[in-house]
């Protein structure tokens, strides 16, 4: 009986080791881009290996924003392990020819902002899908819309709410991100300080 128990324990250990070996640990690229409209795991992660050609999204315009949780699940299905160590909520992928920026994902519980975008760098292109956030008194309300013009960090951008077709006056705060309300005035007044955060 003891031999059987030891054999079962040993089998469980080998199964755990094999499972860990099959899930390749990967790191999110700092500036994910694609050049053909097909966003693959290889476009997003360093060390994607055999899963590099797995398509996770289609980019129709200059950029596409992916939800980090869904991306993590897609990577796991392809045998990759991305532990999302910084708690990102979103990841933006731009056309390879677009202005390069640091990752466009936002940490959980924080305002979405790029890490190393300089003031004057275009962060929103016309027809991009943009998340507009209204911030006041610790309350954040967000809505998705379509940018009606190009905008650099700190520049005004008109965004059409895709649900109501109303135009929202906002200020570009990062790739695929804009702010409305009092926070927008802060970004407009000092985009360089905002970019450094």
TrEMBL record:
Classification via Pfam families: ChapFlgA
Family matches, as Gene3D superfamilies: 2.30.30.760
Keyword Signal: yes
Any one GO biological process: bacterial-type flagellum assembly
Top-rank taxon: Bacteria
Signal peptide start-end: 1-23
Keyword match Signal: yes
Keyword entries, A-Z: Cell projection, Cilium, Flagellum, Signal
Domain Flagella basal body P-ring formation protein FlgA SAF span(s) in chain numbering: 107-177
Official protein name in the record: Flagella basal body P-ring formation protein FlgA
Protein species of origin: Brevundimonas aurantiaca
